[in-house]
Amino acid sequence: MITTSEPTARLRPGEGAIARLACLVLQPVLTRVVRRVAARHPSLFARLGPHQATDFLIDPVELPFALHLRPDPQALVFRAVPRDATPQAGATIRGRFLLLLELIDAEQDGDAAFFSRDLEVSGDTEAVVRLRNALDDMDGSLAEETSAMFGPAGRAVLARLRRAYPDATKPQEYA
Amino acid sequence: MSLAELICPAGTPAALRTAVDAGADAVYCGFQDATNARNFPGLNFTPDELAEAVTYAHTRGTKVLLALNTYPPAGKVDLWRQAADTGARLGVDAFIVADMGVADYIARTYPGIRLHLSVQAAASSPEAIRYYCENFGIKRVVLPRILTIPEIREIRREIPCEIETFIFGNHGLMVEGRCSLTNYLTGQSTNMDGVCSPASDVEYVRDADGSMSSQLAGFTIDRFGPEEKAGYPTICKGRYTAPHRPEGYYAFEEPVSLNLSRLLPELIEAGVHAFKIEGRQRSKSYVRGVVRAFRAAVDDIKAGRDANIADLIALTEGQKQTQGAFETKKWR
Amino acid sequence: MAVKTMTKLTLGPIAYHWPADARRDFYARIADEAPVDEVYLGEVICSKRAPFHEADLPATIERLERAGKTVILSTLAEVMLKRERKATEDLAAMEAPEIEINNAAGLFARGKRPHRIGPFMNAYNEATIAWMAGKGATHVCLPAEMPAPAIAAAARNAGALGLGVEVQVYGRASLAVSARCYHARAHGRTKDNCQFVCEEDPDGMPLRTRDDRPILRVNGIQTLSESYIDLLPEAARLVADGVTHLRLTPQTVDMVAVTQVFRDVLDGRMPTGEADSRLAMLSGDAGLSNGFYHGTAGYRRIAAAAPT
């Protein structure tokens, strides 16, 4: 298991306060997203099996905060956490934000991202494999669903995000 | 005449629908237990999910093949029989089997359902294949990935059943169904439990210099430099040292994927009936990309056009691909 | 331990490419000194090696049989090439001695005539064993990775059908076979151009992890365990569960002394604890393991539970 805690190492002075603020702003959105997914895709939890109780840390490397997920249907946790206050995670998934988003939406292949070292996995590998397989069994796009929750403004943000990361959708770095 | 059917992996119901929509002629899948060789966490089908999947596939003209391709240990055979009973009740189009006891049960109980001989049975000669055909009425053999195309052509002449070959995906090095490497390190058996390098025993350890070690049950299977392409810690794709190789080398095979896209016309000509894409443990994204590419290629070849194979290298392990034994016996 | 003179000790085929004179000397000593009841001969791993010792086979068979041993000829585990198909067919055509079949091609050629089922045949369960018995199998060697409860269930059912039941109790476990020769690969050669480099490693070529931990042994196309299986402490339980034959596979240790230790334990002449210490000493640097039997990682050594 990887036990390094270097997320804090990437924190620059002043970022802590910004990160905390971002987390506060983001939290209601995350709560809505996760409740909606849970309601619409109940079979997801069956595939997680014993790892419904596992704490996942999803770490988008270029953002000032990480996401803490505990996919327990009785007590769902999905929250943004500043890097200097991340919980002890059972499993950590680390990569660029859009790559993580695309993995969730099955637009990218997780194994391929892992083989190319764009994605890093640490902690309980079985937990990550179960989460990956559970998410992969969802039809439709989580990103689209989420952005649609916020109407035209939400879709515009997603489109802008995708434009901002042109290389993430192309496998050019694999060549 | 070869039908050049495309046999596609389905690890989850969503992947199955993806494969069907992308043009699979048949999909193969398994239950969430030891009865199939991809008994991985969070993967595979409940009986209810399989029932829906069969309906989805059949409505669209796609066949469903159920993998029962592991070896029941003594005292646990009932689990495999029950899986066969369930599959028959749900209307699967064929069972993919390896164990003689399982094959015998299905042949006697469900004589109307096709039996395919799994690659896990390791039937690599006309005599071995004929043994299964004559005794269990096997309709199709999935050939081990160890034969050259001329050898496949010769086998075709001597056997009474169809041939299916792998064309893309994980490049297994060991004779399938004869490998206990995983059990030796982890206590979980590929043959009896359907497990290969189980995720529960996998750890990735990052070193201070940015390199990464992949470990299985505490054994270092490989170590990758900061920029080096990585692989899953499968024992047969690991790097080790030997007396003549103190620097460390891939003793069995490099992390590499099989890709026979350029050999499709030759395989068809050699009499291969069906092309199998490996990867029930891979994502929908992989299934969509690979099935679409091969669907287009097979359609082109059947129509007498040159096949334009999309570059699939991004989906290969270690970002490397090989034609393995199919191209040359020097591979051995 | 109760006297179990009924239990037979067998010597499995030599897995490695030992030079012809080493084989001759080895079997001469086995014939004269080793308390084994049955000896399996023949090349099981690589068809390219067979010509080196085939010429000696008749004399070796005669020598062993004169010493009162039952001789069985084992067929190749992998049958793909013409010469492998021919070798399998030729063995299957023999009336005597007995044959042990390791590939379905051999079953095809043998038809319903009597034969033994080798450890590469994947006879994991009672349904498969019953099927095989119906096709003329008289004896079955179970796969090395089977755990105790499965061995017991298989042995009970096979015994009821009148079959002999064999389990490997000593020596490296065969973990995998391949079409590719890993000995040749280690030396930058191909299988067709191997120059029989495997002869350099009479106990297999050691592989170590990159943090220098011993892990596996390579023997041509075969991959073996680094540790030797040792089921001496479990022998009484195996016998009680219906196993009739205990197989020792030849390693580069004093196999006469090794077989004597097993015989002494079976005959109640040596306490198991003392015998196992002696076996560890005879096995030199090789680690001893019994993990498969105890349903855990094969390389592990599980301490004996309270005697049953």
Care to describe what's here?
- The complex is a heterotrimer of chains A (175), B (332) and C (308).
- By secondary structure, chain A is an alpha+beta fold.
- Helix content of chain A is 46%, strand content 15%.
- Chain A has a domain at 19-140: SCP2 sterol-binding domain (Nonspecific Lipid-transfer Protein, Chain A, 2-Layer Sandwich).
- Chain A has seven helices and five strands.
- Chain B has helices spanning 13-21, 47-59, 77-90, 100-109, 126-136, 149-158, 181-186, 190-193, 264-270, 284-302, 324-327, and strands at 5-9, 26-29, 63-68, 94-97, 114-117, 140-142, 162-170, 202-206, 212-216, 219-224, 239-242, 245-250, 257-259, 274-277, 321-322.
- In chain C, strands 1-2-3-4-5-6-7-11 form an eight-stranded parallel β-barrel, surrounded by five helices.
- Chain C has a single domain (8-175, 225-289), classed as Aldolase class I (TIM Barrel), CATH 3.20.20.
- Chain C contains eleven helices and twelve strands.
- By secondary structure, chain C is of the alpha/beta class.
- The chains are: A alpha+beta (175), B alpha/beta (332), C alpha/beta (308).
- The interface between B and C is large, with 73 and 76 residues.
What's the layout of helices and strands?
The complex is a heterotrimer of chains A (175), B (332) and C (308).
Chain A: H1 15-40, H2 43-48, E1 56-60, E2 65-70, E3 77-82, E4 91-95, H3 97-104, H4 110-115, E5 120-123, H5 125-136, H6 142-149, H7 151-164
Parallel strand pairs in A: 1-4
Antiparallel strand pairs in A: 1-2, 2-3, 4-5
Chain B: E1 5-9, H1 13-21, E2 26-29, H2 47-59, E3 63-68, H3 77-90, E4 94-97, H4 100-109, E5 114-117, H5 126-136, E6 140-142, H6 149-158, E7 162-170, H7 181-186, H8 190-193, E8 202-206, E9 212-216, E10 219-224, E11 239-242, E12 245-250, E13 257-259, H9 264-270, E14 274-277, H10 284-302, E15 321-322, H11 324-327
Parallel strand pairs in B: 1-2, 1-14, 2-3, 3-4, 4-5, 5-6, 6-7, 7-14, 13-15
Antiparallel strand pairs in B: 7-13, 8-9, 9-10, 11-12
Helix pairs in contact in B: 1-2, 1-10, 3-4, 6-9
Chain C: E1 8-11, H1 20-33, E2 38-41, H2 50-54, H3 57-66, E3 70-74, H4 82-92, E4 98-101, H5 104-110, E5 115-117, H6 126-134, E6 137-141, H7 148-160, E7 164-177, H8 182-186, E8 205-208, E9 214-219, E10 222-230, H9 235-240, E11 245-248, H10 255-266, H11 272-282, E12 288-289
Parallel strand pairs in C: 1-2, 1-11, 2-3, 3-4, 4-5, 5-6, 6-7, 7-11, 10-12
Antiparallel strand pairs in C: 7-10, 8-9, 9-10
Helix pairs in contact in C: 1-3, 4-5, 6-7, 10-11
